[in-house]
């Protein structure tokens, strides 16, 4: 049962990305092009998503468990560390180069956009690479 | 600042955002999990017992979303302007950076912000800043 809901959530999430215009990397880049011909649309995606999910998080917090009895698993790290900044900067650089972030990458792959296969393969390689070197760089969380 | 009024889609983007928020709500209130795409995907690269099915179903939903969308109409245009080498570099940065920073546009930018997580505010500010900066650099110095 939870798996079915997870599938539905993935479908809706992907539909949302397409409807919102995030499935078009050129539009994403137009949003990031503040000093060019700026397309502010994608700010509205956050504007549409955050109120709905904020209600869900508030409800989840009050209930303490999901409607199917699963525990609500929220991150328990609290401190602000360098990883958030450096990781964010690296991710932002990649996002700004191609106009593709992880969700749209998978949706575009499903739509059969051949070029995205290369991006997704590289993205998975980047994730695997980080998992490999994470122990070596330490988690940076003590600082 | 010049606004690209032709590309501006406030209502669609708001509606798409609403769908994304709904998807986040469903996953949270059934599975108790956060719909952060980079986190969901990376958990499949290092699978743990009992923690695979919901992830795989969610990713499958994202991949199948374009087909669901096709039941309602043609897919909107999707323009990938980046060259092959750029896509590889961008993919690596996105994959590595999202793991390094513990999240991407969905996990930090929507889920984190909607529960007012200071960590997500820092991460979101970092990747937004670098996204803007990268597009500025590419469009002013590399063309």
UniProtKB/TrEMBL annotation, chain A:
It comes from the Bacteria. Keywords: Membrane, Transmembrane, Transmembrane helix. This is Sulphur transport domain-containing protein. It comes from Formivibrio citricus. The keyword Membrane applies. The chain crosses the membrane at residues 40-60, 80-100, 106-131. It holds the Pfam family DUF6691.
Automatic annotation (TrEMBL), chain B:
GO terms for cellular component: plasma membrane. The chain crosses the membrane at residues 12-31, 52-72, 84-101, 122-142. InterPro entries: Sulf_transp_TsuA/YedE. Keywords: Cell inner membrane, Cell membrane, Membrane, Transmembrane, Transmembrane helix, Transport. It is a multi-pass membrane protein. Pfam families: Sulf_transp (PF04143). It is found in: Cell inner membrane. The keyword Magnesium does not apply. Coiled coil: none annotated. Belongs to the TsuA/YedE (TC 9.B.102) family. PANTHER family: INNER MEMBRANE PROTEIN YEDE (PTHR30574), SULPHUR TRANSPORT DOMAIN-CONTAINING PROTEIN (PTHR30574:SF1). This is Uncharacterized protein.
């Amino acid at each position: 049962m939870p798996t079915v809901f997870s599938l539905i959530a993935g479908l809706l999430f992907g539909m949302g990305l397409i409807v919102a215009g995030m499935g078009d990397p050129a539009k994403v880049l137009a949003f990031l092009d503040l000093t060019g011909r700026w397309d502010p649309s994608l700010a509205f995606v956050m504007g549409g998503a955050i109120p709905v999910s904020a209600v869900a998080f508030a409800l989840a917090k009050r209930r303490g468990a999901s409607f199917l009895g699963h525990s609500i698993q929220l991150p328990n790290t609290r401190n602000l560390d360098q990883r958030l900044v450096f990781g964010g900067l690296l991710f932002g650089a990649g996002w700004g180069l191609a106009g593709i972030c992880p969700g749209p990458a998978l949706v575009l792959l499903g739509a059969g956009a051949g070029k995205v296969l290369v991006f997704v393969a590289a993205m998975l390689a980047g994730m695997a690479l980080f998992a490999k070197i994470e122990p070596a760089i330490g988690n940076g969380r003590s600082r | 600042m010049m606004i690209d009024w032709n590309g501006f889609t406030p209502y669609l983007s708001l509606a798409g955002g609403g769908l994304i928020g709904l998807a986040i709500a469903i996953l949270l209130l059934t599975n108790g999990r956060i719909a952060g795409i980079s986190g969901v995907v990376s958990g499949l690269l290092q699978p743990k017992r009992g923690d695979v099915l919901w992830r795989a179903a969610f990713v499958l939903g994202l991949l199948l979303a374009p087909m669901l969308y096709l039941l309602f109409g043609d897919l909107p245009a999707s323009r990938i302007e980046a060259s092959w080498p750029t896509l590889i570099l961008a993919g690596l940065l996105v994959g590595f950076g999202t793991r390094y920073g513990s999240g991407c546009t969905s996990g930090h930018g929507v889920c984190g912000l909607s529960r007012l997580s200071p960590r997500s505010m820092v991460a979101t500010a970092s990747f937004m800043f670098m996204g803007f900066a990268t597009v500025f650099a590419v469009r002013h110095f590399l063309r």
